[in-house]
Amino acid sequence: MADLMVIGTDGSVRTSGWNFHERDAAEPAVARAETAAQVPKQAILAAIRATSERHAKNRSIALVGLSATKWHVLFQALIEAESSYNSTAISPKGAYGLGQLMPATARSLGVDRTDPHQNLEGAARYLLAQLGAFQNIDLALAAYNAGPHRVREYGGVPPFAETRAYIARIHRIRARLSGQPAEQSIVHVSTRGTTRPPVVIALH
Q: Signal peptide span per the entry (predicted)?
């Protein structure tokens, strides 16, 4: 019998076995590359655009106030932050490819994570699920990086240095891809379980 994938309203992904599929927030985005043949960057950029255009009318994009163009920039920025366009990148925890998909996540999304086009498809769908669930770009990025359960647990962006840096890096990349000056970004970190104030991260 085929597995059933459920993307919850909170952005979590479960299969018929009811397992959460989330990455360790402390793991580096890219650790090493396997020996599989790399895809040329220009081909990857073309595949990123094709993937973003395929999902450009997804309602989650409108929920966070993005145009189709800005959605494309966000998606490309996420891929750059995750893998630096390395189609064979693999982390110590086993996240693989352009979108750094974990094995169980890829299975639940019905994609072959070793195929660059399917990896991008899975990454786009998972990011869109987080945008739809949290209706906020920073929270969606935090969920992609640390897991939606962490965003729910802390009631906002988790107070993890790696997650804060990840969000700030994606905003820097977005500014560069859009040809805009990189300004200061305030990442509002949840204070639930911590007394730290919101962290201001310079983008230049």
A: none
